[in-house]
Amino acid sequence: MKHRRTASFLLSILMTLSLLAGCSASQDAPDNANNDIIAAADTRRDAFYQNTTDIEPTGMVYYISNSGNDNNDGLSPETAWATLDRAFETHWPLTRDLLKPGDTVLLERGGIWYISPDEIEGLTSDAYNIVEGVTLGAYGEGARPAIRGDIPEANNPDFWTLYYDENGVKIWASVNKLQDSNVIVFNSGESYAEEIMPHWSTSLNNYCNANGDSFDIMAELGKDLSFCCMLDLDSAESMDLQNSTARGTLYLRCDKGNPAEVFDEIAIPQAQTGLTLHTNATLIDLDIRYFTCIATELSGYDGNSGQQVVNCEVSWCGGLISNYQPSDSGAINVLFPYCAGGALQVSGSENSVRDCYIHHCGPMTLICSIHVDEPGLCKFENMTHTGNLIEYCGSALHIADLSKMDYKDAEGYISNLTFSDNIVIFSGEGWVENHILQIDSEHSMFFSAVENTMGASNNDGIYITDNIFYGSRANLLCLTDNLWNDTGKVNQPIVFSGNVYAQYDDGILCNFNWERGWRIGYASDEKEFLDFIGDTTGTVVTIQ
């Protein structure tokens, strides 16, 4: 497999920033540094859209096109299949044996394939299984083939009925009942509607706002292009979307008129997960978007390893309300929504995400969370995530050892996780900002470029090297050395080296154990911060 890409000038940016950091007397240094970082991000984004990857199959090659036919043999572009169903299965157990290790399936560039939400319970019940050793890629000319989890019928004016119309305020209800949706995206990202998440009152046994008052749709949708999903629930206990397919009416405020007549395209994410990769399966040159939980699973929970995602665009994924839970900081008898998901589940061994453009995903981006189903040791090894541009997402790298949450006698361990040469900008901003702010939490999670605060992991190497971290809604880094629920301390800290830490002039560089932090703009704090994390070659930059 040969990857053609424009050479990154991240190294030169790092060298330039190092020089600027030594020019404290120069008032132009911060602005120059800011401009260089944004230029580096722009260059990487532009190069991404020009990059293609040469695939060298070792087995059979099959083709899928929107103009194809599933009755064809699929062995050439002229005899292409039409659907993903022709090649891949969704549900367990897998019964088809068409594809073998080394086989390649190619989607025609410019095509669009929708994955429909399923009635079967489970986060990955919607997902197509890319079986062992199989590559899913692209052929032809034009834009990357798109795999989408939204519903095209939302573009039909008949999909919407006018629910409320007074004083210029128009609220529209979906004719069909839907699953929870994280965001509504208009015209491929030109704008979006923000979800107003209802809470749950145990005393009313019904939806409420954060204060415990009955949820009033007209009052809660207080601004244009906001929406809520009122799922049909009997109790908070039924609200477990990790194992549920609850549905209800979606209400969207669109004051200008019927949404399908106001906008050329409306994307309402509905399918929870797009693709599940088995051992040594690979995705190359794809556009994956609009999934409510995660775009793609590269996990080892089912014994898989060695999955790769290369040169793919992943966007507008994550954020479904997974359950309602109590909170000490909230009103009495009020349960708060908790949101999950993000871009890619990378909880496993030997996996890699590289040279991808990931944007507008949350509350997490790359999710490395250790869960277990029995006591004992769970070990993730040799994960490499490099060369990516991540912007307007929740936490870019989320590490969480939750093994002791599952079993007190269990232990998680990470060996050789490398996060290197990535550009991460505007963490916790965009649609994810207000979305995350609605999640009740004592601390500011899911905003940071790197975080491990749900539970640090014992390890023999977690390496965060030569990255640019630029701007965070809360803390640029959010770190702990505590194992789950303060059951102990990790054996060694994360290794930071050669990174650029650029934060707003009133922002926080790092929060550690929720007890101490380092703010930007205070030279002594900035030096103490670099000394504390051990990044002797790191650079701190102030975003004006």
Q: Can you walk me through this structure?
A:
By secondary structure, the chain is mostly beta strands. It is 12% helix and 37% strand. It contains 7 helices and 44 strands. Strands 3, 4, 7, 19, 22, 27, 30, 33, 36, 37 and 40 form an 11-stranded parallel sheet that branches. α1 runs antiparallel to α2.
In terms of topology, how is this protein built?
Layout: E1 2-4, H1 10-21, H2 29-50, E2 52-54, E3 61-64, E4 104-108, E5 112-114, E6 128-130, E7 135-139, E8 146-148, E9 160-166, E10 169-174, E11 183-186, E12 191-195, E13 199-201, E14 206-208, H3 217-220, E15 226-231, E16 248-253, H4 259-262, E17 266-267, E18 273-277, E19 282-284, E20 287-289, E21 294-297, E22 308-310, E23 313-315, E24 320-325, E25 334-340, E26 342-345, E27 352-354, E28 357-359, E29 364-370, E30 376-386, E31 389-391, E32 395-401, H5 403-406, E33 410-420, E34 423-427, H6 431-437, E35 450-451, E36 458-459, E37 462-465, E38 468-472, E39 475-479, E40 495-497, E41 500-504, E42 508-512, E43 516-519, H7 523-533, E44 539-543
Parallel strand pairs: 3-4, 4-7, 5-8, 6-18, 7-19, 8-20, 12-15, 18-21, 19-22, 20-23, 21-26, 22-27, 23-28, 26-29, 27-30, 28-31, 29-32, 30-33, 31-34, 32-35, 33-36, 33-37, 34-38, 35-39, 37-40, 38-41, 39-42, 41-44
Antiparallel strand pairs: 1-2, 9-10, 10-16, 11-12, 11-17, 13-14, 13-25, 15-16, 24-25, 42-43
- Helices, by number, come to 7
Query: What Rg do the Cα atoms give?
Result: 23 Å
Helix content: 10-25%
Shape: globular
Unreliably modeled segments: 2-8, 21-28
Strand fraction:
35-45%
Strands, count: 44
From the N-terminal CA to the C-terminal CA, the straight-line distance is 42 Å
- Can you summarize the main beta sheet? 11 strands, parallel
Strand-pairing-aware structural class: mainly beta
The count of domains is: 4
Mean pLDDT: 91
